[in-house]
Design brief:
With 148 residues, this protein is an all-alpha fold. It has a domain of 55 residues. Helices cover 80% and strands 0% of the residues. It is built from five helices and no strands. Helix 1 packs antiparallel against helix 2 and helix 1 runs parallel beside helix 3. The protein is elongated, with a radius of gyration of 40 Å. The relative contact order is 0.05.
Length: 148
């Protein structure tokens, strides 16, 4: 009975593969059936899938379907993120309308930012002045001319 099932599994393989390896597979099964052919039946089932996918070019369709699925999932995810960002931005806009900007607090922070910029500029001038004073004197000219 198991030899009949294995022959049926061989018949399910692609024709080119079956014609090339069918007899060898059946011979190997007959030799292994004496010790137990259950592993060959499982291998035969796996071989059918491998042969139809890899040998017939179905793998190209499978890869194409997988890439398409990834693109669609990525697109759906980006749309969902965009919708969440849109909702959050609308909530922030509504919050600003309800709670107007405190002008005194803004003026204090602006004055602090201007003072910080002034300190940076003073430090930059000081650094620039120090680097100019440390420059070595230009080399004395000799009578030789350099090639260009």
């Amino acid at each position: 009975m198991s030899r009949f099932i294995y022959r049926c599994l061989i018949r399910l393989h692609p024709r080119d593969f079956r014609e090339r390896f069918g007899e060898q597979m059946l011979c190997a099964f007959d030799e292994a059936e004496r010790t137990g052919g259950a592993a060959f039946l499982a291998d035969g089932l796996g071989s059918i899938g491998r042969q139809w996918i890899l040998r017939s070019g179905l793998w190209r369709w499978a890869v194409g379907a997988a890439i398409t699925a990834l693109i669609l999932v990525g697109y759906a995810n980006s749309e969902a993120k965009f919708e969440r960002k849109l909702i959050i931005s609308e909530q922030l806009i509504q919050a600003k309308r309800v709670h107007p900007l405190d002008k005194a607090e803004f003026n204090g922070e602006a004055a602090e930012a201007v003072a910080m910029l002034a300190r940076f500029r003073a430090a930059d001038k000081k650094k620039s002045h120090q680097s100019h004073s440390r420059q070595p004197a230009p080399p004395e000219e000799t009578g030789l001319t350099s090639r260009r």
